[in-house]
Amino acid sequence: MGSVLSRGFAVGLLTGLMVLTSPVLAARDFTTAMQLRLTSGVNTPENDRDSQDLATLDKFYDQRKFAPAWIDHGKPTAKAGLLLTALQKAAQDGLNPADYGVARITTLMERGDSPDALAELEVLLSHGALDYGRDLATGRLAPMSIDNELYVEKREIDTLALLNRLAAVEDAGVELSALPPRRAEYQYLKGALQQYREVAAAGGWKPVPVTDISLKPGGNDERLPALRARLKVTGELPADAPLPEDPTLFDEATIAALKKFQARHGLEPDGVLGKQTLLALNITADQRVAQIAMNLERWRWMPIDMGRSYILVNLAAFHLSIFDQGNVVHEARVVVGTTSTRTPVFSRKMSYLEVNPYWHVPAKIVRDEIFPKARKDPSYLAKQGYELLSDWSETAVPVDPYSLDWAHMTRLPYRVRQVPGDKNSLGRIKMMFPNEFDVYLHDTPSKNLFNRANRSFSHGCIRVEHPFDVAETILRLTGTVDWPRTRLDEALAGGQRTIVRLKQPIPIHISYVTVFVANDGSVNFRSDIYGRDRKLAMAMRAARVKWDAVEAEARMAPGGAAAGQGKDGPQ
Questions:
Q1: pLDDT of residue 553
Q2: Which of 36, 77, 108, 128 is the most exposed place for a label (fewest CB within 10 A)?
Q3: Whether this model's pTM surpasses 0.90
Q4: CA distance readout (Å), 172 to 64, 72, 76, 97, 167
Q5: DSSP state of 477
């Protein structure tokens, strides 16, 4: 029957708008109407997911011998009403109730009394429950289908088993409510979504006038009343904050409020009203609502079991957290890839650390950065701790750079590696989780970059502030007891390359989350430095949301598309 169904009624099922008016299809009783609806129709399924849904519904009702799950004695049951209520609440998770046929279901619940109408209602309820349950559990979209830098496999659930469970309980809404991520981050974001929806419904905030002149603390500007009003809406400035005698004065209370706003939006908290801060201030409440909804979708993509202990990197926030049994036990700032060498999203397991590492320089960096400098001055290699090796094999031998005819060379046909030491671009330690992207965590000699608000400066790898503190935490959580901090420090002081294998691997998850709720309850936003919000918005058919301001903010951010590209250092 599934093959018949797949050739069948997709338009009627998927849109809820098909009405069986043909005398040939008119049904005298509910069972006949159900059979006709599941075996007849027009056109074909629009995509693979629709086809799979049709097949699932076919099996579901075939197993039930066409007995309804939501209709009894010609009327919708109380269970049907509770399911509709659950579907109507889809917006609480950043989903759209319209995607689950709520409007048509509501109409049929109120007016449907013919066998055909009741059969349509029955199927729409089951299909809405199936779609909504799957979207809550695994997300609406397949990450890799919308962005080739998201190496996240979409989880699959047994939709037939889900339908059977929903049909068996009195309140399907209770069963559905258990499907989204139970993580605190997800629940906090749901609260933020409600908060910003209420702000948007109340009118949001008025934009602060844009000029080419930056306003510095202590100055005067006619925009100050508008700035204060804006900061009061989102709580950075208390509603009862006293006004200065001169309302155009950039007073201390407003400066402190603006610094708080900047910190919550990943900007330099300097209290200066400049272009980047204005862009963030003037992104509308509706746009922020959409941004929160997209990040709820990202959390639905995450693994259900991230590990008892694990490492979580948020690229958009330039932040690393280490969790143990659900609690954060260590945090660190990180530097990530530039907009031209973006760090991908993926999960792996960290298996070893390397103290005093060599850096095997990627061919692209050799070609674009090292070779031009060495050609001008062969001593550059020795000064920076680089050595040439004949090839990439274990038996490679050193090559004397002074023996080469640099004037007639167009490329450097040798492996380049940087020896351990203070100049090594990997710093004094790297933490390895083998992957096809050659991405890992490592130290860096460029410590000053950690003081920047926007830290997208690497060639793709993730540089970690205070990496030996991170390493010590990892060693403890993985039970690598033969490597206490004292032994780690001794290996570091010895200067020799040393491999430290973890007693058990620890999962590491590289994520990209542009909205999160901080420990103080404040909602924090980050610039879409890699354009991944934009791609997700398009995929979620959020064309009604204008993302020009968000994209402009990303372009203007330090390290963004319009700012400097990669600086010194490795991946």
A1: 52
A2: 77
A3: no
A4: 18, 16, 14, 16, 7
A5: H
d(CA 11, CA 18): 7
pLDDT score at 23: 38
**Burial track 225-244 (b if 16+ CB lie within 10 A, e otherwise):** ebbbebbbbbbbbeeeeeee
Low-confidence ranges of the chain (pLDDT < 50): 1-25, 41-45, 542-547, 549, 558-569
Can you give the pLDDT at residue 284? 97
| C-beta atoms surrounding 391 within 10 Å | 12
Residues 358-376 have pLDDT tens digits of 999 988 899 999 999 999 9
Q: Which residues pair with 331 in a beta bridge?
A: 321
For residue 463 the two structure tokens come to 């540089």
Query: In degrees, to the nearest 5, what angle opens at C-alpha 504 toward C-alphas 349 and 337?
Result: 25
- 108 is written with which tokens? 């049929």
pLDDT given at position 20: 39
Write the DSSP string, 144-169.
Answer: HHH-TTB--PPP---HHHHHHHHHHS
Q: Which residues of 53-73 are buried (b: 16+ CB within 10 A; e: fewer)?
A: bbbbbbbbbeeeebebbbbee
The rounded distance, in Å, linking the Cα atoms of 422 and 445 is 7
Dist CA 347 CA 364 (whole Å): 25
DSSP string, 126-140: HHHHHHHHHHHHH-S
Structure confidence at residue 173 (pLDDT)? 96
Do 418 and 428 touch, CB atoms closer than 8 A? no
Distances (CA, A) of 237 to 233, 240, 242: 8, 8, 10
Alpha-carbon distance 44 to 427, whole Å? Answer: 59
Q: Are strands 75-76 and 71-72 parallel, antiparallel or unpaired?
A: antiparallel
CB 507 within 8 A of CB 435: no
User: Residue holding tokens 């998201």?
Assistant: 150
DSSP one-letter code for 104: H
Residue-level pLDDT at 532: 96
pLDDT at 72: 93
Q: What are phi and psi of 519, to 5 degrees?
A: -60, -25
What positions carry a catalytic annotation? 442, 461
Write down the pLDDT at residue 163.
Answer: 97
Q: What is the DSSP string of 291-338?
A: HHHHHHHHHHHS-S---SEEEEEETTTTEEEEEETTEEEEEEEEEEE-
Which 8-state DSSP code applies to residue 517? E
- Rounded to 5 degrees, φ, ψ at 457 are -135, -5
Buried b or exposed e, range 467-479, using 16+ CB within 10 angstroms: bbebbbbbbbbbe
pLDDT score at 49: 67
